[in-house]
Amino acid sequence: MSLILLKTFHYLAILFAGGLLVGGGLIQAVYARDNQVPDINIAKILKTLGYLGLAALIILWITGILLSNLIYGGFSINSAFTVKIIAAAILLIISFIVNIHVYNSSKNNQPPNKSIMKIATMSGRGLIIVVLLAAAIAFS
Ligand code: HEM
């Protein structure tokens, strides 16, 4: 039963993290294309999307650690799984950095740095693909 619950939350968090990454990236891309800075309300939405994304990643880690221990008795599963957790760790670090950066810039009433946001969104997308591919290989 707990296995089913953990898996369900793991999958729900994947759905959330991916959706937020695509949605947030799309909003930013529209503003970047028009060379505009998001207005205050959009900036608030982007900030909230960032927090939710971080929360989803933390849920992925909690449920992932529990699943690894319950099903496989630890993290030594196979090389693809190692790649998966390394990519997931980088994703978590990037999400932390971006959230701190966005928090600090909104505190100073300044828009977030465009290059930091662009690099973070692009690497976030790439890393989530790497994690998914590695998960598919690891558990096939
Ligand atoms: C961005 C983060 C993550 C994503 C997108 C992700 C994605 C996935 C996906 C798609 C599966 C299903 C694979 C399958 O059953 O074929 C899965 C399963 C699993 N994940 Fe994650 N995961 C993430 C983070 C983590 C972390 C950090 C851990 C461990 C520390 C973890 C541990 C596991 C385990 C053990 C399973 C397999 C459960 C089973 O055998 O059915 N995941 N993950």
SSE map:
Layout: H1 2-33, H2 40-72, H3 79-107, H4 114-138
Bound molecules: protoporphyrin IX containing FE.
Structure characterization notes:
Helix 1 runs antiparallel to helix 2 (40-72), helix 1 (2-33) packs antiparallel against helix 4 and helix 2 runs antiparallel to helix 3. The protein is elongated and about 50 Å long. The model has no long low-confidence stretch (mean pLDDT 93). The protein starts with a helix and ends with a helix. 85% of the residues lie in helices and 0% in strands. With 140 residues, the protein is an all-alpha fold. It has helices at residues 2-33, 40-72, 79-107, 114-138. The protein has one domain (2-138). Protoporphyrin IX containing FE binds at residues 10, 14, 17, 60-61, 64-65, 67-68, 71, 85, 88, 91, 128, 131-132, 135, 139.
